[in-house]
Every structure is written in C-alpha cells, then in structure tokens.
Amino acid sequence: MPYNLSNFSMPxxxxxxxxxxxxxxxxGMALVQILFTHGMADGKAGxxxxxxxxxxxxxxxxxxxxxxxxxxxxxNAPDAERFQIVQWVRDGASxxxxxxxxxxxxxQRCVACHNADAGGAIPDFTKFEExxxxxxxxxxxxxxxxxxxxxxxxxxxxFIFMFVGIIFAFSTGVPLKPKCAAIVMPYIFLLLDxxxxxxxxxxxxxxxxxxxxxxxxxxxxxxxxxxSLYEMWVLPRKVGMDRRHSLHRS
Length: 250
Hints:
The chain is mainly alpha-helical.
C-alpha cells in the first residue's frame, strides 16, 4: 500500500503535525515582527505601500532618525522629547546643540538598546557620529543590510518550504498538476519577494511586488498546511465513518 498522509503511522503523523504547528506559529510571529518594524515606517499603524517604500527606498525628504521618531520608535520617548530630536535634525543636527540639549535625551531613552554591546545592525548611539549618520537624508535599507537579510531569508525560508512541501507531497486529495504547482509556487514567490526588495531600493514603484511576493508565500503556505493537516487527521475519520455507515446499511 503506497504511503500517504491518511495512512501514516501515529508517530509519523505526530512528527509532521508538531512541525507544521511550530512553523505556523513562527510564521505568525514573523508577521507580527513585520508590523512592529516595517508597519510603522510611515508613522501610522498597519502595513501600507508607503511603509514598504520608506523601508526599502527611504523617505528622501526626511532622515532615518526623524522617520524612526515618528514611526517604530515613537513609543520610546514622550512627544516633547521626540519633537526636540526632530527639530534638532531639521535645524542641521549640529554637534554643539546635540551636546547641549539632545544628548541627555539620547542617554536616557536610547542607549539602553543602542550601545556598543548591542551588535548586529543596531547603531551605537553613545557615539555622536552614529547619530549624525541617521540625521542625514533617509536612503532606506542599505545594500549591506539587504544582502544580509536576503541570504538569511533565501536559506531559511527555502528549508521551511522544503519540509512543508515534503509533507504536502504525500497528500492524495489534490490532483497532480495543482499539487506540483503548490509545491513550486513558494520558491517562485520567494525569489520574487527578495528581488522586489532590491528593485524597490532602486525605484519605489516596485513596492507592489513586495506585497505580491509576500502574499503569494502566505497563500501557498496556508494551502499546503490546511491540506496536510486535513488529510492526516480529518480525512481518516471521515473515511472510517463512511465505511461504518456503508456496512450498517448492508
């Protein structure tokens, strides 16, 4: 008898189900993380095309520091202190004014996270030079950060969909051609998603491709996830009940 999701042994079903549930939770946490980072780029709650443009292309009419003060970092300082920082940026971000009025705010509100021990992409705000860089025109994501995030996503998401695809491949309720399309589509949308980041960095009109790539990944994941769990746990019970009804009638 060929192996399929409905007739796998209980240990295998539990293994597959545990993986699918854990990955689904990770996917949900990733969406929440996107809302907390990119979703506040324009200073408003929720993810919009403007958020995507500001995140990758930048807000060329303002600075990174200003967009952060009105966006994802808005909750970390009172309105009056945020206004002081924004006004300092707009007035030219002079070192003299920084030492006089802005430095105490930064030390109280920012350096707990933005320090030399933070590492990664978090700037060290104990140094004036690091703050001055962020007070310049907002050019969006840097090519270095795009390279780092792109290779992490390509490796990580490819592995996730490889295992989800392996589990889904044992389904029997989906015809061959749609099944093959569902297995391949995540990789197509992943490549579109990553490519669209770089294109949006160069031209903001490509921001819609970021939405399409992300939405395609999500739909492919949800489809394979639901079908796999259905055939492991619901379908065997349904078939068993149908057989019992049939025997009862005979």
